[in-house]
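User: I'm designing a mutation panel for Helix-turn-helix transcriptional regulator and want to avoid disrupting the core. Could you give me a predicted structure to guide residue selection? Please restate the sequence first so the numbering is unambiguous.

Assistant: Good idea. Sequence first, for numbering, then the predicted structure tokens:
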Amino acid sequence: MDKQSPGPLGEFIRSHRERISPQQAGLPAGNRRRAKGLRREEVAQLVGISPTWLTWIEQGRTQSVSAATLSRLAEVLMLSRAERDYLFDLAGLKDPQEASLAANPEAQQALALAVDKIASPAYVLDTLWNVPACNAEAASLFHGWLDDGRDSHNLLQFMFQHPLARTLVDDWPTRARRMVAEFRAEISHHHDEAVTELLEQLRQDSEEFDALWRQQDVQGREGGERVFNHASRGQLRYQQLTLRLAHAPGLKLVMLL
């Protein structure tokens, strides 16, 4: 038997499987049951993996564990949103549920109502940097783009394909380079069809984006001064603040203060 210490991940899994009764998991209670909660073998059966594989997960040997397997484990253990986030953090994996949360209409509707209450320009970005919601101040700042009546807006497509971007965004080359590096960092765990299609389209439609993408630069999304040269209001300076939403981690609230 492998005597390796379970570590934080194993202790967390064991603690939570001990809280679930067989009845809660849809299993017969059985007679002369000594185990508290669910046995490791029972959890493995419900997840669809071998007990040995579950033992490896508990020991932190997650190099070959898929996010789908960990997602199923979270469901079997009946973890809350915060507990699920903690499980994935301990395993060092990205939760695939984040993308579905970003597309949650209820979350987006709640955000749209909140954004309207902000006095300065504010908008929401999803995992593809689409803008599902913005307030009147943001529409005024990005006059000719966010207020053009279309249902769909993408920040990267604006930056590299919309004629307004090069005059509105001060020092466009620097901002464009940084934006591509930030996007590369953010989509590192989102290798899905939607990401692939967006990148292919951007690289095909914009030689500048393609050249920057091939540079392989990576930067974290940070705040700082943002300067705009507005056609009617002149030069405007803001401090950008980006917040990630606890109930919808795939969405970001961007405020220009």
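For picking mutation sites, this is relevant: The two ends are 59 Å apart (CA to CA). The chain has two domains: 7-95, 100-256.
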